[in-house]
Amino acid sequence: MNSEKEKILEQSVQYIKSVGPKRAVSFNKIGIYSIRDLLFYFPSRHLDRTTVLTAAKAYGYVKNGYEGEVTIIAKVFEKTKRRFGKKEVLKVQFRDTTGFFTCVWFQGIKYFYSAFNEGDIIAVSSKPEIDKYGNLQFIHPDYDRISEEESDNFLHTGKIIPFYKIPKELRQGAIGDLSLRRIISYAVEKYVDSLSETLPPKILEENNIISVNTAVKNYHFPESKEKFEAAKHRFKFEELFYLELLVALRKYNYQTKLPGNKMSIKTNLVYDFLKVLPFELTKSQLQVLTEIKNDMLSEKPMNRLLQGDVGSGKTIVSLIAALIAIDNGFQAVLMAPTEILADQHAKTVSSLLRKLEAENSKHEIKVSLLIGGQKKSTREKELTDIELQQADIIVGTHALFEEKVKFNNLGFVVIDEQHRFGVRQRGLIQSKGTTPDVLVMSATPIPRTLSMTVYGDLDVSVIEELPKNRIPIKTVLRGESKLPKIYKFIIDKHKEGYQCFIVYPLVEESEKLELKAATEYFNQLKDSYLKNLRVGLIHGRMKWQEKEEVMFLFLKKEYDVLISTTVIEVGIDIPDANIILINDAHRFGLSQLHQLRGRVGRSNKQAFCILVTHDGLATKQKVEELELDYLSTTQLEKYKASIRLQTMVNNTNGFKVAEVDMKLRGPGDIFGIKQSGFPDLKFVNLSEDQELIIKTKNISFGLISSDPNLKLPKNKIIKENLLAHYSDNLKYAEIA
Ligand code: ADP
Ligand code: MG
Of 29, 477, 490, 648, which one's alpha carbon is 20 to 30 angstroms from that of 283? Predict the structure, then answer.
């Protein structure tokens, strides 16, 4: 950094005019210590003159049926508290030059009463209505305080006013809207020029990016919308540029620091295995296998993400790849996120391999299972087998991370349902081998923007099609009152050999209560509607051995119906379970619903997914008619549950479902971003900024490939900035 000039910014925030030691303490409480921190405390929104109405205009709009939000700037005229029995109501009357309107509060009366004083100038933002006397009113509106001077400036010069989040720590320290704006404007005026640039001049110029000083200034106090947009663009660009740089570094380091294992096809192991498979691989499976094989045969270590919708057949692909490694004398690991899934993988793998061995006794491959909760003697035996390479394929869970687990010659690692594991854990298991080839698999389809950012260090293969015999699952949405009919449907279908999952959400916080709820629900159903069927129960409080036992009985058709909490969410494969009934479906997230639905439809019979919710929600206006992109945030909140349910009804494709999910929830930790070792994104919206992602990716990857150690003088700024602000993330740049 240009350190002399910057030093001043590292001083305590207390030195900013009108802050002082006392207010500084309040700032500290929300993580603002230095002047620099405050400069980067950006407004959450701006008030722009083009979006403000007069009272008279707003009134006219509502009369004409307008239902959106409006903002009016007005003065407090008078306030009155009224009591109706126990209930109190606060009415504050406002006026602007065109007329009056009222704001009403039913809660927090004391607080709001003291918040408004005659003559205060307030920007009121909310959905307006007309009260029973025909007057304009707002119920519990959002509001922001502005000063006389600001309001004059605003109205006459069109200046844009920033609004900041004022957490209670600031309010308690007597820092409100007006004072914070004032403090920040002092800080910007005096210190903004001390910020040193974090992007090289050439990059700024070529991409039409404004300097950091101007951007900070205009992010706070823009003179026009365009100037604000340019500032925002700069920070988005910078954020993505450094993110992609970290991605590129991680990838570069992984591929070049250590040589990988150059494998080859030694025997006809894989070929013979394909012959014992009970089905033919799909074109897509063959395609991704070729990509994986090429990585394994090259000396670069593989670091690949295999994506494919639920049921697309990833397990078999990873097993075949594991066989290539075994053919080369290596051990292979298959990691699953839950014990029950690991257990199931081990069974599937073993039974296929036994078939192979029956065909050709030369192909003797041993499978080990290592999971928590195993008997001590079993565990010791497995550990020895692994260490002495008596085991070729090791299936397991987190238990594989433990220090005790030592491999003789680990050359291939598969991580199933990768979003459940973090980058640190990936690094841990890799370090147990000598640069093993790594294949991570995801059943939650990862939107393209994510596979270009937080997963950008991985090469990507996608299984695009489902096995041929699959019939798309029929998904329907029903109200609770239809449950008796649904149970009858389940009974009818049972006569055709259908089995059924019945899922319900965990409503109770405590595990004990959860168990009670599960058991009660189970008892009720098996004694009433489903009394002629054999009903099983599985829930999270069971040990994995118990879960395994239940799943096994279900698989053997000892049960017709399996009542379950979300423990069946990932991976489980029961071919004849072709109905899944999901209770209180509105409580589940989209990707969870999609995963659950993926438990059925794994055979050539028509499968059904029945989503059950309140009667009201089930019959509500069809959300497919609402264009997601045009919904405001408040509307979005209101419709979220409907959107999720309708999305499920209208889409069987997991990528589509994942896109909607990302829009609704933000990428957050859905895709394991929090554990990715990459910085949080504050400015970028991964579902909207695709173009910029592609652009910065190209720039950053180009830069690292031409100057991987950032030694060139023109990249000095970048290196210094990485070390100054991204040191934590850099730690992970060397782990895949
Ligand atoms: P996922 O991709 O969700 O992990 P799985 O690997 O569990 O899917 O495969 C789902 C089911 O499809 C399994 O029963 C598997 O044996 C079967 N399967 C996989 N590939 C094919 C194929 N090419 N044709 C028919 N069935 C297949
Ligand atoms: Mg799977």
Answer: 648
Specify if 706 maps to a domain: no
Give dist(CA 17, CA 179) in Å, integer.
11
DSSP character at residue 101: E
The residue whose CA is least distant from atom 12 of ligand 1 is 313
Kind plus residue range of the DSSP H or E element containing 179: helix 177-191
598 CA: nearest ligand 1 atom: 3
User: Residue 136 in contact with residue 55, Cβ under 8 Å?
Assistant: yes
| CA–centroid distance, residue 372 to ligand 2 (Å) | 20
CATH number of the domain where residue 136 is located: 2.40.50.140
Domain span at residue 514 reads 474-651
Instruction: Return d(Cα 377, Cα 636) in angstroms, integer.
Output: 55
Q: 636 and 536 share a domain?
A: yes
- Ligand 2 centre to CA of 309 (Å) is 9
User: Among candidates 463, 492, 321, which has minimal Cα distance to 393?
Assistant: 321
Atom 19 of ligand 1: nearest residue by CA position:
313
Residues 174 and 40 in one domain: yes
Which one of the ligands is nearest to 289 CA?
Answer: 1
Q: What are residue 413's phi and psi, to 5 degrees?
A: -125, 125
Q: Do the Cβ atoms of 678 and 243 come closer than 8 Å?
A: yes
Residues belonging to the chain: 736
Are 494 and 423 members of one domain?
Answer: no
- Report the candidate in 723, 699, 632 with the shortest Cα–Cα distance to residue 127: 632
Ligand 1 in contact with 443 (CB < 6 A)? yes
Ligand 1 and 318: CB distance under 6 A:
no
8 Å CB contact between 557 and 576 = yes
Token digits of residue 343: 């257990």
304 assigned to some structural domain: no
Q: pLDDT tier at 495 (50, 70, 90 boundaries)?
A: very high
Q: Which ligand is nearest to the CA of 415?
A: 2
Q: How far apart are the first and last CA of the chain?
A: 29
**Protein residue closest via CA to atom 10 of ligand 1:** 311
Handedness of CA 582, 586, 590, 591 (dihedral sign): negative
**Nearest-atom index, ligand 1, CA of 348:** 16
CA–centroid distance for 332 within its chain? 30
Output the pLDDT for position 582. 94
In a domain, 308, yes or no: no
Arithmetic mean of pLDDT, 4-26 = 91
Reference 363, options 327, 405, 409, 310; nearest CA is 327
Identify whether residues 185 and 285 lie together within a single domain: no
For ligand 1, the distance from its centroid to the CA atom of residue 274, given in whole angstroms, is 14
Q: How many domains are there within the chain? A: 4
Residues 421 and 562 in one domain: no
Minimum-distance ligand 1 atom for the alpha carbon of 310: 3
For residue 312, the CA-to-ligand 1 centroid distance in Å is: 6
Give the integer Cα–Cα distance in Å for 641 and 623: 10
- pLDDT recorded at residue 210: 97
Phi, psi (deg, nearest 5) at residue 306:
-105, 115
Residue 727 pLDDT > 90, yes or no?
no
In a domain, 611, yes or no: yes
Using CA atoms, how far apart are residues 217 and 165, in angstroms rounded to an integer? 18
526-580 pLDDT, tens digit each: 999 999 999 999 887 888 788 888 888 998 899 999 998 876 666 567 888 999 9
Task: Give whichever of 203-217, 388-402, 500-514, 646-660 has the largest mean pLDDT.
Answer: 203-217
Same domain, 395 and 502: no
- Which residue has the CA at smallest separation from atom 1 of ligand 1? 311
Q: pLDDT tens digit string along 150-160?
A: 888 887 777 88
Ligand nearest to the CA of 319: 1
Looking up residue 589, the CATH number of its domain turns out to be 3.40.50.300
Of 336, 335, 330, the closest CA to residue 434 belongs to 330
3-state DSSP helix/strand/coil percent for the chain, to nearest 5?
50, 15, 35
Q: Does the C-beta of 281 come closer than 6 Å to ligand 1?
A: yes
Residues 20, 88, single domain; the answer is no
